[in-house]
Write the C-alpha cells for this entry.
Amino acid sequence: MKLYDAAASGNCHKVRMMLSMLGIEHEVVPMNLPGMDQKTPQHLARNPLGTVPVLEDGDLTIYDSQAILVYLAGKYGNESWLPADPADQAAVQQWLSFAVNELWNGPAIARAKLRFNRDVDLPRAQALAADVLTIMDDRLTGRDWLALDHPTIADIACYPYSALSEEGEITLAPYKALGAWFKRIEALPGYVAMPGLGA
C-alpha cells in the first residue's frame, strides 16, 4: 500500500491516523505541494484533481480523504469504525460531509490563508469557523464522539481542521467540549501527530 502524502495537510493527516489506528503497513510518498508535485502528469494520472492524499492498494487507486477513510474502514477495519446499520451509517456520513463542506470552508480555509497565503476571504472563513466550531461543541456537550457512542471515521474526518483552527487565528478557548474531544482522539491507540497537532 502506498500513500501520496503532504505532512502539513489535514486531509492527509486523517488518512495517516486511520492507517496507523488500523495497523496497516504502507509506504509514504512525500509530495512537495509548493513545488507542484501534485500537478505533474504522473500524479494527475492518479488523481485528475491534482490533490493529496491519494492511496494505492494494489491495482486500486483512491483519492479524496473521506473516500479513503471509508475504504480503509470497510476493508481493513471493523464495523465500529464504519457501521453496517443504515441509520448509523447515515450518522457517520453526515459528519463526513460536514468535514468537506463546513470545516473546509471555515477553519481549513482560514488556516490556508494564514499558513499558505491562499487567495481566500479570511474574515468570511473565520466567521464561518466560529459557527462550525459552535455546532461541534454543542454536539459534543454531554457526549464523547460525534456520530455514535464510540469513535468512528466521522471523528477522524473532523479532527484535523477543527484542531488546527488556531492556525487560522480562530481561538479554541470557548469550546470546552471540543477541547475534551481532541484529547480523547489523541488518546486513541495508534494516534499519530502532525505539525501543529499532538506534537
About this structure: The helical segments are 10-21, 41-46, 65-76, 86-100, 102-116, 122-140, 153-163, 176-186.
